Amino acid sequence: MQSTLPLLAAFAGLIGLLVGSFLNVVIYRLPLMMEREWREQCRALLEGSDATASTASPADTAPFNLIVPRSGCPACKAQIRARHNIPLLGWLWLRGRCADCGAAIPVRYPVVEAFTGLVSAYLVWRFGFTVDAAAAVAVSWALIALTVIDLDHQLLPDTITVPLLWGGLLFHLLAIPHAAPGPFAVSLADGVIGAIAGYLSLWLVYHGFRLATGKEGMGYGDFKLFAALLAWLGYQMFLPILLLSALTGAVTGIALIALGRHGRQEPIPFGPYLAAAGFVAMAWGEPLLTAVPFLQVFG
Question: Comparing 1-5, 33-37, 273-277, which segment has the lowest mean pLDDT?
Answer without folding.
Answer: 1-5
